[in-house]
Amino acid sequence: MTGMSETTGPEENAVAAAPTTPQEWRGFLERYGERYLKNAADEDELDDLLDEDQLDALEREERVELWLGEAPAREEAVAASEERLGVRFPPTLRGFFLASDGWTHLDTWVDGVHPCGRVSWMRDSDAGRSVTETYASIPGNEDDVQLFRRSLEIARGEDFWLLDPTDVGPDGEWAAYEFAPKYGDTTKYPSFSALFYSEYESMDEDGDDDED
Predict the structure, then answer these.
(1) pLDDT digits (tens, 9 = 90+) for 129-139
(2) Torsion sign across C-alpha atoms 78, 81, 86, 92
(3) What are φ and ψ of residue 18, in 5° steps?
(4) CA 96, CA 18: separation in Å to the nearest integer?
(5) What torsion, rounded to 10 degrees, do the Cα atoms 70, 75, 90, 92 define?
(6) Is 114 within 8 Å of 147 (Cβ atoms)?
(7) Model-level pTM?
């Protein structure tokens, strides 16, 4: 793992198009769901998500409207999570929770974005603590370990999505990271919103590859 960590940046268009308000998130997540159904979901998943008419419409490349998110979080629930963690969430994360309290359908190596009540410090989650201890035991990983110890874990699967409260932009956004323990790769984004939007863009690329 030593020397394998690599920090890269997202495309500029991800920043420009990233949603912030609950209304912007709602529209974006609807588009995300449409693209996910078209480019990312496998046949078994489609059978679980869609009825026969919707499957036929998808086959005809017609628009299928289906909300793949959760119900919006109440402001009181978001505030309670912030109080529990001792922080105020950055604007794009707050906007996300007020549009959808968690998300499970992602074309990525994370299982989904946690609902606000499950967001934790990476150092406090079982998986996060295990990864941190493993990296701390190997010389040369000091920067990664410090990042893990100070960051919020907002999504987890094989990879992690993290937010760093010590790296705040002029817009109040925290730096976001996608971390792949298997490879030691850490990819940095200017915000949670930009990280989420990069996943949306990658589905388009996947779909284009399939068509070639």
Answers:
(1) 999 999 999 99
(2) negative
(3) -70, 135
(4) 11
(5) 40
(6) no
(7) 0.84
